[in-house]
Amino acid sequence: MVLLASSAQWPALPDYRHEWALVDVETSGLRPGRDRVLSLAILMLDAYGNRTGEFSTLLNPGCDPGPVHVHGLTPERLAGAPTFEEVAPEVGALLSERVMVAHNAQFDYDFLAHEFARVRSWIPVRRRLCTLALNRLVGPATPDLKLGTLAAHYGVRQERAHDAQDDVRVLSGILRGSLGAAGQLGLALPLLDCPPRQDYKPYVPKTPCAYRNPGRMAPGGALVQGMKIAVTGDTRVSREELIARSVAAGLNMMTSVSRHTSAVVTNDPAAGSSKLRRAAEEGVPLLDESAYLRLLESVRDGEAKGAVRQERGDGTPMGEAAAPHRTEPGLPAQRTVAPDDPPAARKGRPLAGRRVLVLGGGHEEAAEARARALYMGASAAVNLSGSVSDVVVLPGGEADRRMSRVAALGLPVHSPDWLLAPMPAVVAELVRGAARGAPDAAVLVRGAVLDLADSGEAWTVSAMWSQLTPCDVDVVAFALDAGEQVRGDEDFVFYGEPEHPDGTVRLATDGPTEQVVTVDLARLPLEVHRVVVAAAIDGAASFSDVGALEITATCGIGAAPAARATLDAATTERTMILAELYRRGEGWRMRVVGQGYDHGLADLACGYGVDIDG
Q1: Would the CA dihedral through 286, 292, 296, 300 be positive or negative?
Q2: What gap in Å lies between CA 425 and CA 350, rounded to an integer?
Q3: Cα 511 → chain centroid
């Protein structure tokens, strides 16, 4: 498919007409809330793409400016600049009632949200648009989606990279070209709602427990380092002192009760608190304060989290992944699908290098068609984009609103029989399209693995689903130890806590149908052996309502995907394990999983040792 690289006219589609505020920030580091904004530029456009104003300033952060070799902002240059507090009213007025636009927008949005919160205010942005996410939907013929690459593709001259003022000028050209390409495809813009935020507070980490959880306390037994202990109700010793003494003894003090809790300390077992009700449901033993204090005097040694084990509980040798279709402890059995043939076996197949979009059909029929396309060497798309080379129309697909765009773009349209024909017949029918210009990503199926290069860049696993999806999907991540359990609740990264306290695992929402988990493998603690990426349906819907999910693995922001997979096996499931990153010797691998469960996210989290409030 050939899309126009740029357009002289601002797109005429009414859904694309918004008042825009294009934003770029240069920062002292990569972590909002800890690092600061050093430079800010805003360019305002009206609904027709006309420039209506601009603003730029350096900012004095009152701290070390960080990587000067990247942004060139030395302490001397920033010394006379205003503080963010001084410019906050003007910046707020410029952002208010406009759609904020940025490349990798969550980064810029989070930094500004924290800066506003520092001055006891909030960022007045109701919706934002990420041009990186927009171009992932568009699929332009570029080697990657970095700002400079897209600038060249859309015919925009970049003069000073990492200069906020020049970057927003470049961004305006990229936005114009991206909207033009999206208009050709008939794409709904991935506009993301942004609720008011005033969430800045200095991070005070929970004291981590250095020991593995040995399980329940035995009747009349001793306390063991690593036990998870919860306290409820009034205590004679102050709660702060009780927790401090417990932590010093090597116990893991929890604020909630789950089936992993070792014991609950209470002086009134009949109080009926939520913790006591949960303890009764799970059979967690109760201790009164006096007995607990006596046991604190002789806590037994536990197993350190960093201790090396020769094998996991399922017998899998250390350094290798556990079987991809295992059942987690305490969880209902999941559907399993045997791994398909390896990627290398598909390179010579007739659809290798092609990208197929399936329209119409029921869930099972569409899944079967996509599976056939994968078997013949293609990758399966979930949305119409510039990378789609062929469209297969199943019964009912003729009425899909995307068909008019498919016809206008001149894409080859095939009946279902095309995927059932003998391979030589398919080869004879193929009409080779123009070269896409982007390197092909490896096409993975369930059970397939990818070696992750150690390039110094963080790896991202993104999940994307159809823009027509009628329900909400939440992507989450679990950082697991050798026992397939979290070390603490902070190892569960989700919409409520989108970043691990040490910054090694982060969740970003780039649009209403795309979420990304970024993992800094080089900085992960040695006791983390696996990072599991999963998805859950919010509400009573199931993954049959969502349809196929496309998974991509990318090394570095805006880089070309190293691999992609399409997961299409789920029907009644409400949670699904998408992929896992795991240690393999001295390196890391990613496995595509695609395991579904009929239960909700809370049960999945509990299976990995996360304490859900109760």
Answers
A1: negative
A2: 9
A3: 11
Structure tokens at 242: 């009780």
- Give me 405's structure tokens: 């765009």
Instruction: Please tell me the number of Cα atoms within 13 Å of 336 on its side-chain side.
Output: 11
Fold of 343-429: Rossmann fold (3.40.50)
Every domain of the chain and the residues it spans: 14-193, 228-296, 343-429, 445-607
| Strand spans (E) along 285-401 | 286-287, 355-359, 379-381, 390-393
Looking at domain 14-193, its CATH class is alpha beta
One-character DSSP codes across 318-336: TTSPPPTT---TTSPPPB-
- 8 Å CB contact between 78 and 65: yes
575 vs 570: CA distance, rounded Å: 9
Question: What global pTM score does this model have?
Answer: 0.75
CA distance 610 to 612: 6
Token pair 């006219």 is found at 9
Distance CA 399, CA 45 (A): 36
Spell out the residues 6+ positions from residue 218 whose beta carbon is closer than 8 angstroms to its own: none
Fold classification of 445-607 is Lipoxygenase-1 (2.60.60)
Q: Which of 354, 479, 497, 330 is nearest to 412 (CA)?
A: 354
What letter represents residue 285's amino acid?
Answer: P
Question: What CA–CA distance (Å, rounded) separates 439 from 40?
Answer: 34
Cα atoms in the 13 Å half-sphere on the side-chain side of 111: 22
The burial class, CB within 10 Å (0-12 / 13-18 / 19+), for 201 is: exposed
> For 172-189, what is each residue's pLDDT tens digit?
999 999 999 999 999 999
Tokens 């702060």 sit on residue: 240
Q: Is 343-429 the same fold as 228-296?
A: yes
Q: Which CATH architecture has domain 228-296?
A: 3-Layer(aba) Sandwich (3.40)
Angstrom distance (rounded) from CA 16 to CA 138: 15
Residue 342 is predicted with a pLDDT of: 52
Q: Residue 528: name the closest of 552, 550, 504 by CA.
A: 504
* Contact indicator for 529, 521 with CB cutoff of 8 Å: no
Which secondary-structure segment (H or E) carries 476?
A: strand 473-480
Question: For residue range 503-524, what is the model confidence (pLDDT) as tens digits?
Answer: 899 999 988 999 999 999 999 9
Q: Which two tokens stand for residue 478?
A: 């679990």
Which residues, 6+ apart, have CB-to-CB distance to 497 below 8 Å? 490
User: What is the rounded CA–CA span in Å between residue 547 and residue 542?
Assistant: 9
H or E, element range at 27: strand 20-27
pLDDT for 268: 94
* Alpha carbons 453 and 480: distance in angstroms, whole number: 21
Spatial distance between the Cα atoms of 299 and 122, rounded to a whole number of angstroms? 47
What pLDDT does 310 receive? 38
Q: Output the six-digit token pair for 209.
A: 């427990």
What pLDDT is stored for residue 207 in this prediction? 63
Structure tokens that stand for 178 in this block: 């991206």
Give, as one character, the DSSP assignment of residue 458.
Answer: P
Q: Which residue has the tokens 């920030």?
A: 25
Nearest Cα to Cα of residue 445 among 394, 374, 357: 374
